Amino acid sequence: MKMPKSVKTYCKKCNSHTAHKLKLFKSGQSRSMAHGTRRNVRKHKRGYGGKAKFVIKVKKQTKKPTFLAECAVCKKKRYFVIDKRMKKVELEA
Ligand SMILES: [Zn+2]
Q1: How far is the CA of 92 from the centre of ligand 1 (A)?
Q2: Most distant CA pair in the chain: distance in Å?
Q3: Which parts of 12-65 are beta strand (E)?
Q4: Cβ atoms 20, 77 nearer than 8 A
Q5: Which of 56, 69, 76, 77 is least surrounded by Cβ atoms within 10 Å, i.e. has the fewest?
Q6: Which intervals of the chain are annotated as region Disordered (predicted)?
Q7: Contact at 8 Å (CB) between 19 and 70?
Q8: Domain 1-27+62-86, CATH
């Protein structure tokens, strides 16, 4: 699917519809010392020999595209998610 570079959508801060710049969202590197990571490690290393790791047999083939939308007026950023799975998504030039 091709997405336009900017869309007009609601901004919480401006309390109105404004133009937003779209950018594809990529998750950052997970932190090894974050609380959730430490908790998960503890969970799997518990007991004698530890717990078996949960393995996903069938991975999802597609992702719901997530964008970062930046308001052109106040520069506030928010997530812009299309609630449909698709294989390919790109921003229009
Ligand atoms: Zn705004």
Answers
A1: 23
A2: 57
A3: 16-24
A4: no
A5: 56
A6: 28-48
A7: no
A8: 3.10.450.80
